[in-house]
Design goal:
By secondary structure, the chain is an alpha/beta fold. The chain is globular, with a radius of gyration of 16 Å. The chain contains six helices and ten strands; from the N terminus they run αβαβββββααβααβββ.
C-alpha cells in the first residue's frame, strides 16, 4: 500500500540497521518473498540494505553477543482469524522449527546472551495477565528457561512495557538498551 511504501522509505533511509522478529499478525506472503542471506553467523531475510528479519530458532552473533530469536506465536482467536486469512496460519511455528531451535541451542552449549521472542514462556505471560492462555510455544519456551543459560529475555506479544522477575522484559512501545537497563526506570 501507499502508506507501507512511505514508511518503508523512511526506514530504508536510516543510517543504522533495523533487526526484527515477526509477530502473529504479519503478512507472511510479503515477508517470504524477501531473500534469505547469511547474517551474524546464521540466516536472516533481507528486507532492505539496512533491514533484516531475524528468523525463528536462529542464533546470531552481533557485536560479540549471542542472540537467540524466535518470532511468531499462537493467536487465541485464531479460528476466526484464519478462516478468512489463510496466511495467518503461518504465525504458529512448525514442529520442525521448534526442533531445529532446540538443536541450535544444544549445538551452542545451551548458552546465549539474549533471547528475543514474540511470545513469552507460559508462566511469565501469566505474571502480566493471570488469564493468559498457556500455549504449546509458551511451554517450549518454559523448557528453555530451565535448560538455557541467558542474561535477558525480551518479548512483545503481551503489548506491555514491563520488567518482570529478574531478567524478563515485556517490550511494546519502549526502546530498551539491551546491555544496560536502568534499575530506576519505571514502566
Amino acid at each position: 500500500s501507499n502508506i507501507e511504501n512511505k514508511k518503508m522509505k523512511i526506514l530504508k533511509s536510516k543510517k543504522f540497521r533495523i533487526l526484527f522478529i515477526e509477530g502473529t499478525h504479519e503478512n507472511f506472503d510479503a515477508l517470504e518473498n524477501f531473500p534469505i542471506v547469511e547474517f551474524g553467523g546464521s540466516y536472516a531475510r533481507q528486507i532492505a540494505d539496512n533491514i533484516f528479519q531475524l528468523m525463528r530458532g536462529q542464533i546470531y552473533k552481533i557485536e560479540g553477543k549471542l542472540i537467540f530469536t524466535f518470532g511468531g506465536g499462537e493467536i487465541p482467536d485464531k479460528v476466526d482469524i484464519c478462516e478468512g486469512n489463510p496466511f495467518f496460519l503461518r504465525q504458529m511455528p512448525t514442529k520442525e522449527q521448534i526442533e531445529n531451535a532446540a538443536k541450535e541451542l544444544i549445538a551452542n552449549g545451551s548458552e546465549v546472551n539474549y533471547i528475543i521472542t514474540h511470545e513469552p514462556p507460559n508462566q511469565i505471560a501469566q505474571l502480566i495477565d493471570r488469564d493468559a492462555p498457556a500455549t504449546d510455544l509458551g511451554s517450549f519456551f518454559l523448557k528453555l528457561t530451565q535448560t538455557v543459560k541467558f542474561e535477558k529475555w525480551f518479548f512483545g506479544a503481551l503489548h506491555a512495557d514491563k520488567k518482570l522477575v529478574a531478567k524478563y522484559f515485556a517490550v511494546f512501545d519502549d526502546i530498551l538498551p539491551i546491555e544496560r537497563i536502568e534499575k530506576t526506570r519505571k514502566f
